[in-house]
Design brief:
The protein has 35 helices and 17 strands. The protein is α/β, with parallel strands linked by helices. The strands form 5 sheets. A 6-stranded parallel β-sheet has the order 9-11-12-13-10-14, sandwiched between helices. The chain has a 4-stranded mixed β-sheet with strand order 1-5-2-6, sandwiched between helices. A 3-stranded antiparallel β-sheet has the order 15-17-16.
Length: 907
């Protein structure tokens, strides 16, 4: 092993790690070249210091320390470091033990037939990295690598094959292999930016997806032409202790090339993004796995002798595709790829961003685990179903060459027939005049002769069109092929269609997250200077609910009119008329169907009409809810003009279209805020807005009258202690409370509690529920001490009968703490709130309203106790979460923001 005191690694260019006096000199069989990643170093990236290693494995909580390996400029840290220096100036600092530079210290010994190199380049300056005309671009780095390769390696006379081991950004530089035209086999460790960069970390990267796509396409072509083999290692862990890096730095989708399994092996390493490239011992999993893969490549996968030398640097364009690259199976696969027909009528969406987890899941279910042959992607109109399917279709076309890919729009009979005719033409299926085109194609694709295929049935929203009806039996579903070799992917807005078409194999597509939405906006906005106002952008995306189509529409408006984002936001938050006009304004989008309606409001109007046609009760419910507040809608408030089954089905229809969401397992619902506005536009379109509004007002007034009538009847017909009578009185009291008639509500609740105290055990749920409602009414009436007395009793009973994690018990404890706080018993309130928050943080999601409410109240208690910094820490978390899940004018969100502002003022 070469001594570190005599060893020096060049910061740029090649450094040979195999000893010049090695007995293997002159008999090397292969080059192994290590290429580091962003902000990396040709030695430090692959070097494991035991001090650093112990910190990382311990998951040190210091965020700055954990962040340092990603952002420290390795040039300053390592080029001045020599291994023979004893620096005693760091008294009191941890001593740095000799580091293991495993490519030199281990690999050169264990694979002596390999000449091992490390390659360095300037990866510290990240701006311009993905701009084609920049001197610091990936392409420029690729050209530099080619130049150094020919001068430092090829000219030394060794013409053997080469294996690249690339980490992070190094993977893209190696992929930009058109400059090298290397025809040997390639391996890599992990890839931060094979598809795109993680903008949570590298916010300064101006990623040009077209540049990356071009690199990807050219690399895939070379792979398919030459049979280069790839072994991709994926990080199995996120980086702990660093804000924003609790997940993997690179998603599984981005950290592989996406080749057929004959050409690419994908494997996980049980380490995070940084540590997976470092080994401190030969027994480390990383080293054992990597060295075995390299050995296997050399001994079983690479050509030898003259063929290897000739293959090494032969221009890819001149290579014959029938060369014996790895096996006859690969040759057959590559030959098959060129002949497989496909039909995708929409072009690639170069602005597509994010959705890595979704694409990973589709790949996993359909091609890796092969869980099903039919899968339906369902979601709200405008959520991006077609674009996800389009990205997936091109991925299959590029990376699953044994599959044909066919795309069929199910917008109408006409669009379906047109697509089938084009597919039949490309398959060269001859159809006589008397033959049924759809039936003929269905039979062909169902046969063995068709081979493997992926069929995407897009916009399968119309139940009658797809499955027929009593008036029009049949439907397009009859013409969809069935084959062991086939996969069918549906996109639909209707959950009923999804379940009918794919059974339980349904994937719910949600809106983008904030990071994805921001990245999408950045890619598509022409006036990049507008991106500097991050706060306004954040508010805009929140108002657009991170809906891809709404963002696309907004960007089209901003690009065409050169409107400042703040002005657009003011229009969006202005009158309902302005908002509807914005949402209804059409724009051109080449990645959507010609002649289709692209505006958000327009696409939902189609869905509303489908609901009206298929489920009149659901349409009436939708109309009613457009006239009331869209959040926290109790089922008891809804019109009840139908049977229980019809009502349940109507609610299911609206939830199935994602117009309505149910809170947990209860009977409380929320309506999508943009859908709420669009529904009113839909009703106005049919001239029914005034009619629906008056009907809704009458229903709300009638609700109390109905409850009063029921109670009056029950008083005459049922005994005072009868539970049906008491339940109806309870509902009337709640209606009074919601209507602001607090005194009337208290009078009824006191009566109910008095009866149930006599007739029910103290732990009975109905009795406790009535006592709880009475206590809340007392709070609304300012009778805090009376409320505290009841809450203390309820909590004492529930402590005996319920587990500490039970949400009913936690709710009662929360209410008691709030009452204590209102009564200035601050210490008592804090003690209970801290207990409730700890339990809810363990048992509820961070977005859960009950958890957020308890955290908010604990912060309020801290403020009252003078613990301002503690309060701010909690409120910043609450405000951040509520900004993602609540509307800008939501009462709870506004309250949290005001409380945080007050806390800042108190500092």
């Amino acid at each position: 092993m070469p001594g570190p005191e005599t060893f020096s690694v060049h910061r740029t260019g090649f450094t040979q790690l195999s000893r010049p006096d090695s007995p293997q000199r002159g008999s090397y069989k292969v080059n192994i070249i290590f290429v580091h990643g962003l902000r990396g170093h040709p030695q430090a990236t692959w070097e494991d210091s035991r001090t650093v290693n112990s910190e990382e494995r311990a998951g040190a909580p210091n965020r700055r320390r954990a962040f340092k390996p990603l952002f420290t400029r390795f040039r300053a840290k390592y080029t001045v470091l020599t291994r023979n220096e004893d620096d005693d100036s760091n008294n009191g600092s941890p001593s740095i033990e000799p580091s293991v530079f495993w490519p030199r210290d281990y690999l050169t010994e264990d694979i002596p037939e390999a000449r091992v190199w490390t390659y360095g380049y300037n990866a510290d300056v990240v701006r311009g990295m993905f701009q084609a005309d920049n001197q610091n671009s990936v392409s420029q780095h690729g050209q530099d690598l080619a130049t150094h390769f020919k001068r430092d390696i090829e000219n030394e006379g060794f013409q053997g094959p080469t294996i690249f081991v690339a980490h992070s950004l190094g993977g893209i530089i190696v992929k930009d292999i058109e400059h090298l035209s290397v025809a040997n086999e390639v391996g890599r460790l992990s890839c931060l930016a094979f598809q795109d960069s993680n903008k949570r970390i590298i916010k300064t990267l101006e990623v040009n997806s077209e540049v990356l796509d071009n690199i990807q396409d050219e690399f895939l072509q070379i792979v398919h032409d030459t049979g280069i083999k790839v072994h991709s290692f994926q990080e199995a862990r996120g980086i702990s202790g660093v804000k924003g890096l609790h997940e993997k730095v690179v998603s599984d989708f981005s950290s592989k090339v996406g080749l057929p399994e004959q050409l690419e092996t994908v494997e996980r390493i049980d380490a995070n993004h940084m540590q997976m490239a470092r080994c401190s011992d030969k027994t480390d999993q990383q080293y054992r796995v990597i060295s075995k893969v390299l050995t296997q490549f050399i001994r079983t996968g690479l050509p030898h002798g003259d063929e290897a030398g000739a293959q090494s640097l032969t221009p890819a364009a001149s290579m014959k595709t029938d060369r014996a690259v790895a096996s006859g199976n690969i040759r057959a696969l590559l030959s098959n790829r060129a002949s497989r027909p496909y039909y995708i009528p929409l072009p690639r969406n170069r602005h597509f961003t994010g959705r890595d987890a979704v694409l990973d899941r589709l790949q996993e279910r359909l091609f890796i685990r092969k869980e099903c042959q039919k899968l339906a992607v369902v979601g709200l109109g405008g959520v991006g179903k077609t674009q996800v399917a389009l990205k997936f279709a091109y991925w299959v076309k590029d990376n699953q060459p044994e599959y044909s890919v066919f795309w069929v729009p199910a917008l109408s009979d006409g669009s379906f027939n047109q697509a089938y005719a084009e597919i039949a033409r490309r398959l060269e299926i001859r159809i006589d005049k008397d033959d049924d085109l759809k039936g003929s194609l269905q039979r062909h694709l169902s046969s063995e002769a068709a081979g493997k295929w992926l069929l995407i049935v897009d916009n399968a929203d119309d139940t009658e069109l797809l499955f027929g009806s009593s008036e029009k039996p049949g439907g397009l579903h009859e013409y969809l092929p069935e084959s062991e070799n086939g996969i069918t992917l549906f996109t639909t807005r209707s959950r009923k269609v999804a379940v009918s078409a794919a059974g339980c194999d349904v994937f719910d597509l949600q809106e983008m997250d904030e990071q994805e939405a921001t990245s999408f906006l950045e890619k598509t906005l022409i006036q990049k200077q507008l991106l500097q106002d991050e706060a306004t952008i954040r508010r805009l995306l929140q108002d657009l609910t991170y809906l891809p189509l709404a963002i696309t529409q907004a960007v089209a408006y901003l690009n065409c009119n050169q409107t400042p984002i703040q002005n657009y936001l003011e229009l969006l938050r202005g009158t309902e008329e302005d908002m509807v006009r914005l949402m209804s304004r059409e724009f051109r989008d080449s990645t959507r169907y010609s002649g289709s309606q692209n505006a958000v409001a327009s696409t939902w109007l189609v869905s509303f009409d489908q609901v009206r046609k298929s489920d009149s009760a659901a349409a009436e419910l939708l109309s009613f809810m457009s006239c009331i507040e869209p959040k926290a809608i109790p089922r008891s408030l809804l019109p009840n003009s139908w049977s229980n089954e019809e009502m349940e089905n109507a609610i299911g229809t609206l939830c199935g279209y994602a117009f309505l969401t149910r809170r947990g397992e209860g009977d409380m619902f929320d309506m999508h805020s943009l859908v709420h506005v669009a529904t009113r536009a839909w009703i106005r379109r049919y001239g029914r807005l005034q009619e629906v509004a008056i009907s809704a007002l009458h229903h709300l007034a009638d609700a109390i009258e109905i409850f009063e009538h029921v109670v009056a009847v029950h008083k005459k017909t049922l005994a005072e202690k009868d539970q049906f009578r008491l339940n109806s009185e309870h509902e009337l009291a709640r209606a009074y409370l919601n209507d602001g008639r607090i005194k009337d509500a208290i009078e009824i609740f006191e009566h109910i509690v008095a009866i149930r105290k006599k007739t029910l055990a103290e732990e009975n749920h109905s009795r406790l529920n009535s006592e709880h409602e009475l206590a809340r009414a007392y709070l609304d009436d300012g009778r805090i001490k009376d409320a505290i007395e009841i809450f203390e009793h309820i909590v004492a009973v529930q402590e005996k009968t319920l587990e500490k994690e039970d949400q009913s018990r936690l709710t009662s404890e929360h209410e008691l703490a709030s009452a204590y706080l209102d009564n200035r018993r601050i210490k008592d309130a804090i003690e209970i709130f801290e207990h409730v928050v700890v339990i809810r943080q363990k048992t509820l999601e961070k977005e859960d309203q009950f958890r957020l409410k308890s955290e908010h109240e604990l912060a309020r208690a801290y403020l009252n106790d003078g613990r301002i910094k503690d309060a701010i820490e909690i409120l910043e978390h609450v405000v951040a979460i509520e900004a993602k899940i609540l509307d800008a004018d939501d009462y709870s969100r506004v309250l949290s923001q005001k409380l945080l502002a007050r806390a800042y003022d108190m500092l």
